Amino acid sequence: MDNLRKISDSLYLVGADDRKISLFERVYPIDNGMSYNSYLLTDEKTVLFDTVDKAVSQKFFENLKAALDGKKLDYVVVQHMEPDHSATLKELMKKYPESKIVCNAKVAAMFIQFFGECLSERFYEIKEGDCLNTGKHNLNFVFAPMVHWPEVTMTYDSTDKILFSADAFGHFGALNGKLFADQVNFEKYYEEDFCRYYANIVGKYGAQVQAVFKKLNGKEIKTICPLHGYIWRKDLNYIFEKYENYSKYLPERHGIAIFYGSVYGATESAAEKIACEFNSRGIETLLLDVSKEHYSKIIAACFNYPNLCFASITYNNGIFSPMEHALREIVAHNLQNRSVSFVQNGSWAPASAKLMREILENCKNFRFNENVLTIKSSLNSITENDIKDFVDSIIANAGPAFC
Ligand code: FEO
Predict the structure, then answer these.
(1) Is the dihedral of CA 336, 212, 202, 303 positive or negative?
(2) Are strands 256-261 and 23-24 parallel, antiparallel or unpaired?
(3) Residue 65: exposed, middle, or buried by beta-carbon count in 10 A (0-12, 13-18, 19+)?
(4) Using CA atoms, how far apart are residues 34 and 133, in angstroms rounded to an integer?
(5) Euclidean distance between CA atoms 38 and 85, whole angstroms
(6) DSSP 8-class letter at 2
(7) How far is the CA of 369 from the centre of ligand 1 (A)?
(8) In 253-401, which residue ranges form alpha helices assigned H by DSSP?
(9) 7: CA distance to ligand 1 center in Å?
């Protein structure tokens, strides 16, 4: 039996949830499943927007068949070729032999890479700004290169003011029987994974997100249909503002995120003492153990906080490996505009602060605190005043970020 979901009189969600998945893209831990959204517009012509991951292909094909209700499928708009949206394309085109693949040249090239030349004669190539009339609806194509793949296309339905936004504005988590973000307590249950999704999937490409915003400027958008997560029909400014901030690497919170890598507890204790000192001054802190937290949570925290402190033991004359991994991911995700401080620990040759800084010097506009807190083996090597002085130096280095 299908699980077709009606969005409006002419638009259906024909995608499906995968609640068994535990690692999205085999990297990102997800506790609450994942939705793979595919949409069918039923106008004089029928138009499908993207397909789904293989894991939910059976449900997708059942839903599509029900939504078409005997009509033929005219167009398949391919906005993104990553296999979580394209894995079922070839099978789809076989099932619906009259349909055209509406796509740009980069999608067409990737389509051939994934599936071979067998369906090339069915490409209907679009260019930036092209419009496809389907009867009552006009579909305007807005290319969104590197948000987060080069071929990505968004589609603006100027008739119903709907933006089909590809991966943008998506989030981790299944829909679980609901359709719209306003049907759940989004801030409480989904905001954290909305940020984690953005920071890790799209975060590297802030300039490209800004470029798409410029193209969309002036278009009235009443609904956003992303390829993952809930559909937005209310409070669109809430997510537009988030994307505006995230894409400019502007933190949404005040205070400091402190990350520690500790084997026997001394570095953890120092990090905790620093957090306590900030707390006693009324400053918000987040304290995360890099050995325990997946790096995607660390990346999300770094996008959220203006001030970052990294505390690591010296390990094999280097950085503690989970910390080193996290730092390299921060660089890979193009984080910018942060104030950064370091705590190092070493029983004979503390060196991790210098090495951590060398990695983060690859980030743009990082302001480094020259005052490094050095521990030798245990907290016996420092005093309460050392902690207070260190916190003073973090605040001085941060400047107005703490205001
Ligand atoms: Fe959801 Fe970039 O794929």
Answers:
(1) positive
(2) unpaired
(3) middle
(4) 32
(5) 8
(6) -
(7) 37
(8) 266-280, 295-304, 321-332, 352-360, 384-398
(9) 22
Helix, strand or coil for residue 339?
strand
| 8 A C-beta contact, residue 63 and residue 35 | no
pLDDT in tens, 282-341: 999 999 999 999 999 999 999 999 999 999 999 999 999 999 999 999 999 999 999 999
pLDDT tens per residue across span 45-82: 999 999 999 999 999 999 999 999 999 999 999 999 99
From the CA of 227, give the closest atom in ligand 1.
1
DSSP string, 263-292: SSSHHHHHHHHHHHHHHHTT--EEEEETTT
Q: Please say whether the beta carbons of 104 and 141 come within 8 A.
A: yes
- Residues with beta carbon inside 6 Å of ligand 1? 80, 82, 84-85, 148, 167, 227-228
Q: With DSSP H G I counted as helix, E B as strand and the rest as coil, what are the percentages for the chain, rounded to 5?
A: 40, 25, 35
Going by C-alpha positions, the residue among 191, 385, 201, 227 that lies closest to residue 304 is 191
DSSP track, 68-82: HTTPPP-EEE----S
Helix (H, G, I), strand (E, B) or coil at 39: strand
Q: In this structure, which residue's CA is closest to atom 3 in ligand 1? A: 82
Report residue 286 as tokens.
Answer: 């987040």
Q: The tokens of 244 are what? A: 């505006």
